[in-house]
Amino acid sequence: xxxxxxxxxxxxxxxxxxxxxxxxxxxxxxxxxxxxxxxxxxxxxxxxxxxxxxxxxxxxxxxxxxxxxxxxxxxxxxxxxxxxxxxxxxxxxxxxxxxxxxxxxxxxxxxxxxxxxxxxxxxxxxxxxxxxxxxxxxxxxxxxxxxxxxxxxxxxxxxxxxxxxxxxxxxxxxxxxxxxxxxxxxxxxxxxxxxxxxxxxxxxxxxxxxxxxxxxxxxxxxxxxxxxxxxxxxxxxxxxxxxxxxxxxxxxxxxxxxxxxxxxxxxxxxxxxxxxxxxxxxxxxxxx
Length: 288
Prior knowledge:
globular; seven-stranded mixed beta sheet; Metallo-beta-lactamase, Chain A; single chain; alpha/beta; 23% helix; 8 helices; 14 strands
């Protein structure tokens, strides 16, 4: 029987979390002083119901410890980038019974879409690390063929590549409800018809090219990041095409220079314009 899905945002930061190390800018200083929701950990999402973790940034252990998560039945990886994989030692913390003899360790199924499995073999030592974790019987790595889906806890999960096809998004299909989670890298993406009209879409916010509250340009027009990362305006174009009932934006970059309060003001203005968009923050829970 399918379970109700609730989405818990463990970490809502981007490639560099907030506060940035030793940074004394307005956003980082406030985040360091006040903590959550002003601070943002590395990008990770937990789906209650099937009890699935998506991605493991460096600080995922601390994100899980402050969360409402009580068990993790599986983990999905969206792509190989360091801000999404470098906390993979969390499976030792979660599962390894070091004291017991014979040990009573647990094992987590780790699902790798096809191109993620390919990249793990060549990037950042991820494959060797997971071979070690398999040797310790702490994970079971499952490589998925392109187009293959998996059922966990009665919910069907469909991974599919984005425009940058080494990056995957996921559709969680409960039967009555569908949730789209695209953790990162939506640059150049045109949502296919089959994912449109979902009940909830979780997307990366995109780069703030121009501060919407002040009108000041954050990145010069010639900055190379604008040739490789979706901007917030481009994200709004994706939102319009998706026609989702609700939209939550995450992966909020420190480099964009917007605080939690700034985003709340921006959110209210967007809603006045008829856009049902919420900016995520660490520890936020959302019903599907």
